[in-house]
Design goal:
The mean pLDDT is about 85. A hairpin with a 2-residue loop joins strand 1 and strand 2. The chain has a single domain, classed as Cytochrome c-like domain (Cytochrome Bc1 Complex, Chain D, domain 2), CATH 1.10.760. It contains 6 helices and 2 strands. Helix 2 packs across helix 6 and helix 4 packs across helix 6. It is mostly helical. About 60% of the residues lie in helices and about 5% in strands.
């Protein structure tokens, strides 16, 4: 009887865990998605957080904060709407893509763009 109860609880917990994993976005998945979005849409002008068009307009923390872009939300707005010579990428990034790539960029900026 105890073995049956134990196995039933294991099955129930496994089902709950599977449901949570399927319905809750994974942090690792978001990081991978942010990296992929960046690689596909941003890296050609911003390799490793640099800027090949305008050297001072990098994605490094010092340059971002100097321009008042001091959060992932601010980066998402720039990604979505554009700034200066850079046009917005809302369509290319897709719905919610601006937030995902911005969170990834902000994390990279805080870590000095050192990728492991």
């Amino acid at each position: 009887m105890a073995v049956w109860l134990f196995m039933s609880m294991i099955r129930l917990l496994s089902s709950i865990l599977l449901a949570v994993l399927l319905l809750w976005p994974s942090t690792a998945l978001a990081v991978e998605s942010g990296a992929s979005l960046f690689q596909n849409n941003c890296a050609s002008c911003h390799p490793n957080g640099e800027n090949i068009i305008r050297r001072g307009r990098t994605l490094k923390i010092k340059a971002l904060t100097k321009r008042g872009i001091d959060s992932s939300e601010a980066i998402a707005q720039v990604a979505r709407e554009g700034i200066g010579q850079m046009s917005g990428y809302a369509d290319a990034l897709g719905e919610g893509g601006d937030v995902i790539v911005a969170e990834w960029v902000w994390q990279q900026a805080q870590n000095a763009w050192i990728q492991g």
